[in-house]
Amino acid sequence: MSEVLLSARNLTKRFGGLAAVNEVSVDLWRGRIHAVIGPNGAGKSTLANLLSGDLAPTSGTITLGEANVTGWKPESVSKAGLGRSYQKTNIFLPFTVWENVRLAAQSRAPHPARWLRRATSFAATNERAQRALALAGLEHRKDAVAGTVSHGEQRQLEIAMTLATEPRVLLLDEPLAGMGTVEAERMVELLQRLKAEHAVMLVEHDMDAVFALADRLTVMVNGQVIASGTPAQIRADANVQAAYLGE
Ligand code: ADP
Ligand code: MG
Protein backbone atom coordinates (compact mmCIF):
# COMPACT_ATOMS: atom_id res chain seq x y z
CA MET A 1 0.00 0.00 0.00
CA SER A 2 1.42 3.32 -1.03
CA GLU A 3 1.43 6.22 1.34
CA VAL A 4 3.53 9.32 1.88
CA LEU A 5 5.72 8.72 4.95
CA LEU A 6 7.78 11.89 4.72
CA SER A 7 6.85 15.19 3.19
CA ALA A 8 9.12 18.22 2.93
CA ARG A 9 7.69 21.54 1.82
CA ASN A 10 9.63 24.55 0.56
CA LEU A 11 12.77 23.70 2.48
CA THR A 12 15.44 26.37 2.40
CA LYS A 13 18.84 26.31 4.08
CA ARG A 14 21.08 29.36 3.89
CA PHE A 15 24.74 29.44 4.81
CA GLY A 16 25.36 33.18 4.93
CA GLY A 17 24.46 34.44 1.47
CA LEU A 18 24.36 30.97 -0.12
CA ALA A 19 21.05 29.10 -0.41
CA ALA A 20 22.47 25.56 -0.35
CA VAL A 21 18.88 24.25 -0.47
CA ASN A 22 16.35 26.61 -2.01
CA GLU A 23 12.58 26.01 -1.71
CA VAL A 24 12.84 22.25 -2.16
CA SER A 25 9.77 20.04 -1.74
CA VAL A 26 9.84 16.26 -1.78
CA ASP A 27 7.48 13.40 -0.87
CA LEU A 28 8.82 9.98 0.12
CA TRP A 29 6.40 7.09 -0.35
CA ARG A 30 6.37 3.66 1.21
CA GLY A 31 7.27 1.19 -1.53
CA ARG A 32 9.23 3.71 -3.56
CA ILE A 33 12.86 4.64 -3.99
CA HIS A 34 13.25 8.36 -4.53
CA ALA A 35 16.66 9.28 -5.92
CA VAL A 36 18.14 12.74 -5.51
CA ILE A 37 20.76 13.49 -8.13
CA GLY A 38 22.74 16.51 -9.20
CA PRO A 39 26.31 17.71 -9.62
CA ASN A 40 28.68 18.31 -6.71
CA GLY A 41 27.55 21.21 -4.57
CA ALA A 42 23.92 20.87 -5.72
CA GLY A 43 22.70 20.61 -2.12
CA LYS A 44 21.94 16.87 -1.91
CA SER A 45 23.77 16.23 1.36
CA THR A 46 22.38 19.43 2.86
CA LEU A 47 18.87 18.25 1.97
CA ALA A 48 19.57 14.89 3.66
CA ASN A 49 20.92 16.77 6.71
CA LEU A 50 17.73 18.83 6.89
CA LEU A 51 15.49 15.76 6.70
CA SER A 52 17.46 13.92 9.40
CA GLY A 53 17.54 16.91 11.76
CA ASP A 54 21.33 17.27 11.52
CA LEU A 55 20.66 20.79 10.23
CA ALA A 56 17.72 23.04 11.03
CA PRO A 57 16.09 24.61 7.97
CA THR A 58 16.06 28.38 7.53
CA SER A 59 12.45 27.96 6.41
CA GLY A 60 10.05 25.28 5.28
CA THR A 61 8.45 22.28 6.99
CA ILE A 62 9.13 18.56 7.35
CA THR A 63 6.35 16.12 8.20
CA LEU A 64 7.25 12.56 9.21
CA GLY A 65 4.22 10.32 9.52
CA GLU A 66 1.76 12.49 11.42
CA ALA A 67 4.38 14.61 13.16
CA ASN A 68 5.70 18.01 12.18
CA VAL A 69 9.38 17.31 12.89
CA THR A 70 10.74 20.63 11.62
CA GLY A 71 13.62 21.71 13.86
CA TRP A 72 13.68 18.44 15.85
CA LYS A 73 17.00 17.00 17.02
CA PRO A 74 18.38 14.00 15.07
CA GLU A 75 17.67 11.62 17.99
CA SER A 76 14.02 12.69 18.04
CA VAL A 77 13.68 12.43 14.27
CA SER A 78 15.21 8.96 14.48
CA LYS A 79 12.74 7.91 17.18
CA ALA A 80 9.92 9.22 14.98
CA GLY A 81 10.97 6.72 12.30
CA LEU A 82 13.73 8.11 10.12
CA GLY A 83 16.90 6.08 9.65
CA ARG A 84 19.99 7.48 8.01
CA SER A 85 23.20 5.90 6.85
CA TYR A 86 26.07 8.32 6.67
CA GLN A 87 28.84 8.44 4.11
CA LYS A 88 31.23 8.30 7.03
CA THR A 89 30.93 4.98 8.70
CA ASN A 90 29.64 4.45 12.22
CA ILE A 91 30.89 0.87 12.36
CA PHE A 92 32.96 -0.16 15.39
CA LEU A 93 35.64 -2.16 13.59
CA PRO A 94 36.98 -4.34 16.47
CA PHE A 95 33.45 -5.67 17.18
CA THR A 96 31.77 -8.46 15.24
CA VAL A 97 29.08 -7.81 12.66
CA TRP A 98 26.47 -9.11 15.11
CA GLU A 99 27.74 -6.94 17.99
CA ASN A 100 27.52 -3.84 15.80
CA VAL A 101 23.95 -4.56 14.75
CA ARG A 102 23.01 -5.52 18.32
CA LEU A 103 24.40 -2.22 19.64
CA ALA A 104 22.48 -0.27 17.02
CA ALA A 105 19.28 -2.12 17.99
CA GLN A 106 20.00 -1.38 21.66
CA SER A 107 20.18 2.33 20.96
CA ARG A 108 16.48 2.14 20.11
CA ALA A 109 15.40 0.04 23.14
CA PRO A 110 12.95 1.90 25.37
CA HIS A 111 14.17 2.85 28.84
CA PRO A 112 17.24 0.60 28.91
CA ALA A 113 17.75 1.22 32.65
CA ARG A 114 14.39 -0.14 33.72
CA TRP A 115 15.34 -3.50 35.20
CA LEU A 116 11.74 -4.74 35.28
CA ARG A 117 11.50 -4.50 31.52
CA ARG A 118 14.94 -5.83 30.88
CA ALA A 119 14.12 -9.45 30.07
CA THR A 120 11.49 -8.64 27.44
CA SER A 121 13.48 -5.74 26.10
CA PHE A 122 16.56 -7.99 25.75
CA ALA A 123 14.66 -10.53 23.64
CA ALA A 124 12.99 -7.84 21.57
CA THR A 125 16.32 -6.14 20.90
CA ASN A 126 17.86 -9.43 19.77
CA GLU A 127 14.94 -10.02 17.43
CA ARG A 128 15.22 -6.54 15.99
CA ALA A 129 18.94 -7.05 15.38
CA GLN A 130 18.35 -10.48 13.85
CA ARG A 131 15.72 -9.14 11.43
CA ALA A 132 17.98 -6.27 10.37
CA LEU A 133 20.90 -8.63 9.79
CA ALA A 134 18.76 -10.95 7.67
CA LEU A 135 17.23 -8.14 5.63
CA ALA A 136 20.69 -6.74 4.92
CA GLY A 137 21.82 -10.20 3.75
CA LEU A 138 24.58 -10.54 6.33
CA GLU A 139 23.52 -13.52 8.46
CA HIS A 140 26.40 -15.62 7.15
CA ARG A 141 28.89 -12.93 8.32
CA LYS A 142 27.39 -12.59 11.79
CA ASP A 143 30.48 -13.66 13.73
CA ALA A 144 33.08 -12.00 11.53
CA VAL A 145 35.00 -9.07 13.01
CA ALA A 146 33.64 -5.98 11.27
CA GLY A 147 37.10 -4.68 10.43
CA THR A 148 37.88 -7.85 8.45
CA VAL A 149 34.82 -8.01 6.15
CA SER A 150 34.87 -6.55 2.63
CA HIS A 151 34.10 -2.93 1.84
CA GLY A 152 30.76 -3.96 0.31
CA GLU A 153 29.84 -5.96 3.42
CA GLN A 154 30.72 -2.98 5.62
CA ARG A 155 28.27 -0.87 3.62
CA GLN A 156 25.66 -3.64 4.06
CA LEU A 157 26.46 -3.58 7.77
CA GLU A 158 25.82 0.16 7.93
CA ILE A 159 22.42 -0.46 6.41
CA ALA A 160 21.78 -3.32 8.83
CA MET A 161 22.66 -0.97 11.71
CA THR A 162 20.24 1.62 10.37
CA LEU A 163 17.52 -1.02 9.92
CA ALA A 164 18.02 -2.19 13.52
CA THR A 165 16.46 1.07 14.71
CA GLU A 166 13.30 0.07 12.78
CA PRO A 167 12.92 3.17 10.64
CA ARG A 168 10.02 3.65 8.22
CA VAL A 169 11.96 6.14 6.12
CA LEU A 170 15.55 5.43 5.05
CA LEU A 171 17.97 8.09 3.84
CA LEU A 172 20.95 6.56 2.10
CA ASP A 173 23.87 8.77 1.13
CA GLU A 174 25.88 7.12 -1.66
CA PRO A 175 25.50 3.48 -0.58
CA LEU A 176 27.33 2.36 -3.75
CA ALA A 177 30.38 4.60 -3.32
CA GLY A 178 33.66 2.77 -3.88
CA MET A 179 32.05 -0.55 -4.81
CA GLY A 180 33.08 -2.98 -7.50
CA THR A 181 30.54 -4.42 -9.94
CA VAL A 182 29.63 -7.51 -7.93
CA GLU A 183 29.31 -5.57 -4.68
CA ALA A 184 27.23 -2.90 -6.41
CA GLU A 185 24.88 -5.54 -7.84
CA ARG A 186 24.40 -7.04 -4.38
CA MET A 187 23.66 -3.58 -2.93
CA VAL A 188 21.15 -2.84 -5.71
CA GLU A 189 19.33 -6.09 -4.84
CA LEU A 190 19.37 -5.13 -1.16
CA LEU A 191 17.89 -1.69 -1.89
CA GLN A 192 15.17 -3.31 -4.00
CA ARG A 193 14.27 -5.56 -1.04
CA LEU A 194 14.19 -2.60 1.33
CA LYS A 195 11.64 -0.57 -0.55
CA ALA A 196 8.85 -3.10 0.06
CA GLU A 197 8.45 -1.89 3.63
CA HIS A 198 10.20 1.46 3.61
CA ALA A 199 10.24 4.81 1.92
CA VAL A 200 13.78 5.23 0.62
CA MET A 201 15.60 8.41 -0.35
CA LEU A 202 18.76 7.61 -2.26
CA VAL A 203 21.55 10.10 -2.92
CA GLU A 204 23.78 8.37 -5.46
CA HIS A 205 26.27 9.19 -8.21
CA ASP A 206 26.10 5.85 -10.02
CA MET A 207 23.56 6.72 -12.74
CA ASP A 208 23.15 3.12 -13.92
CA ALA A 209 22.12 2.15 -10.39
CA VAL A 210 19.93 5.23 -10.00
CA PHE A 211 17.98 4.55 -13.16
CA ALA A 212 17.76 0.83 -12.32
CA LEU A 213 16.38 1.53 -8.85
CA ALA A 214 14.51 4.81 -8.69
CA ASP A 215 10.74 5.08 -8.93
CA ARG A 216 10.98 8.87 -8.69
CA LEU A 217 13.84 11.32 -9.17
CA THR A 218 14.55 14.83 -8.04
CA VAL A 219 17.30 16.67 -9.90
CA MET A 220 19.01 19.49 -8.01
CA VAL A 221 21.37 22.15 -9.32
CA ASN A 222 22.66 25.02 -7.18
CA GLY A 223 20.22 24.27 -4.37
CA GLN A 224 17.16 24.23 -6.60
CA VAL A 225 15.02 21.46 -8.03
CA ILE A 226 15.28 21.72 -11.82
CA ALA A 227 13.21 18.60 -12.53
CA SER A 228 11.22 15.97 -10.66
CA GLY A 229 9.41 12.89 -11.95
CA THR A 230 9.69 9.31 -13.12
CA PRO A 231 12.94 8.00 -14.64
CA ALA A 232 11.40 8.25 -18.13
CA GLN A 233 10.36 11.87 -17.55
CA ILE A 234 13.80 12.78 -16.20
CA ARG A 235 15.60 11.11 -19.10
CA ALA A 236 13.51 13.10 -21.57
CA ASP A 237 13.85 16.43 -19.73
CA ALA A 238 15.80 18.97 -21.80
CA ASN A 239 16.84 21.01 -18.73
CA VAL A 240 18.29 17.91 -17.12
CA GLN A 241 20.13 16.96 -20.28
CA ALA A 242 21.66 20.41 -20.48
CA ALA A 243 22.46 20.86 -16.80
CA TYR A 244 23.59 17.43 -15.81
CA LEU A 245 23.13 14.19 -17.71
CA GLY A 246 24.54 15.60 -20.93
CA GLU A 247 27.78 16.65 -19.26
P1 ADP B 1 26.14 17.99 -2.61
O1 ADP B 1 25.93 17.00 -1.52
O2 ADP B 1 25.05 18.00 -3.63
O3 ADP B 1 27.48 17.84 -3.27
P2 ADP B 1 26.17 19.93 -0.44
O4 ADP B 1 24.82 19.84 0.14
O5 ADP B 1 27.26 19.23 0.27
O6 ADP B 1 26.13 19.46 -1.98
O7 ADP B 1 26.59 21.46 -0.59
C1 ADP B 1 25.76 22.43 -1.20
C2 ADP B 1 26.41 23.80 -1.08
O8 ADP B 1 26.38 24.22 0.27
C3 ADP B 1 27.86 23.81 -1.50
O9 ADP B 1 28.12 25.04 -2.15
C4 ADP B 1 28.60 23.71 -0.19
O10 ADP B 1 29.87 24.32 -0.28
C5 ADP B 1 27.69 24.48 0.74
N1 ADP B 1 27.75 24.01 2.13
C6 ADP B 1 27.44 22.77 2.56
N2 ADP B 1 27.56 22.68 3.90
C7 ADP B 1 27.95 23.90 4.33
C8 ADP B 1 28.26 24.48 5.61
N3 ADP B 1 28.15 23.75 6.74
N4 ADP B 1 28.64 25.78 5.66
C9 ADP B 1 28.73 26.52 4.54
N5 ADP B 1 28.46 26.05 3.30
C10 ADP B 1 28.08 24.76 3.19
MG1 MG C 1 27.13 15.29 -0.89
UniProtKB/TrEMBL annotation:
CDD domains referenced in this protein's UniProt entry, alphabetically: ABC_Mj1267_LivG_branched
Keyword Coiled coil: no
Matches recorded under SMART domains: AAA
GO CC terms of this entry: plasma membrane
Alphabetically ordered keywords of this record: ATP-binding, Cell membrane, Membrane, Nucleotide-binding, Transport
Alphabetized InterPro entries for the sequence: AAA+_ATPase (IPR003593), ABC_AA/LPS_Transport (IPR051120), ABC_transporter-like_ATP-bd (IPR003439), BCA_ABC_TP_C (IPR032823), P-loop_NTPase (IPR027417)
UniProt source species: Ramlibacter tataouinensis (strain ATCC BAA-407 / DSM 14655 / LMG 21543 / TTB310)
Protein known as: Candidate ABC type branched chain amino acid transport systems, ATP-binding component
Lineage top rank: taxon: Bacteria
Pfam families hit by this protein: ABC_tran, BCA_ABC_TP_C
Keyword flag Membrane: yes
Residues in ABC transporter domain copies: 6-247
GO molecular function per UniProt: ATP binding; ATP hydrolysis activity
